[in-house]
Amino acid sequence: MSSSLLQLLVLAGIAIFLILKLRSVLGTRDGYENPPSERSERRSEPRRDFAVIEGGPDRDITDHVDDGTDAAKALAAMKMAEPGFNVSEFLQGARGAYEMILMAFENGDVDGLRPFLADDVMETFEDVISQREAQGLSIDASFVGLRELGLQDATFDRSTGEAEVTVRFVGELTSVVRNASGDIVEGDPNAIKRQRDVWTFARSMGSNDPNWVLVATGG
Predict the structure, then answer these.
(1) Please, are residues 149 and 167 in contact by the beta-carbon 8 Å criterion?
(2) All structural domains of the chain
(3) What angle do CA 215, 217, 219 make, to 5 degrees?
(4) Is 214 exposed, middle or buried (0-12, 13-18, 19+ CB in 10 A)?
C-alpha cells in the first residue's frame, strides 16, 4: 500500500471520528428547518400565556382621598366630564385662592373678593366688613403661610355637571384689630395665630370658565 493511500485512509478515519463526536454533543436535526429570518421573527413574537394588566387606581385621586370612596368616585366622574381636570393642580390653585381671599377679607377689599365668591358668601363677607367699618375698626394682617392643606370631600352631579370640592386649610397669620385712632384693641402684631377653615369650591365641569367659586365656609 502506497504511503499516499495510507495517509488518505488515516485522514478519512479522523473525519469520521469527529463527525460522530459532534453528533453526540449537538444531537441531530431532522426535517425542514426554517430560514434564519423566520426563526428570528417567531422568537420576537410576544408570549400569549400571560395577561398584561393595565390601568389601576388613579394616583392623582388616591393621593388625596381613599380609593373607592364616594369622594374618589366623584373626582373620577369630574375627570370623565373634563379630561383636563387634575386634583393636585386644583389643590395648588386652592392654596393660592385661600391666601388671596383671606387677605382680601381681612383688608376689607370687597372688589377683590367679588369674582371668587358665590353671591350668598359674598353677602356674608360684605356684612362683616361693613360692620367693622361702621365701628371704625380695621384689621392689619399678614399671611405667614399654610401649615396644612387637604381634600376633605367631593361631590359631582352628573345631570348638571356641577362639581363641589371641600378643602380644609390650616393657615398661619399675624393679625391685629385697630380702632379709628390706630390703636390696637385686639391681637398682637408679633404673635402668629393659627386659623382653621373648611371651604367648599364649586364649578360647572366642561364649561369655558376655568374659575372655581367659593360657595361655603366653615371652621
Answers:
(1) yes
(2) 59-218 (3.10.450.240)
(3) 160
(4) buried
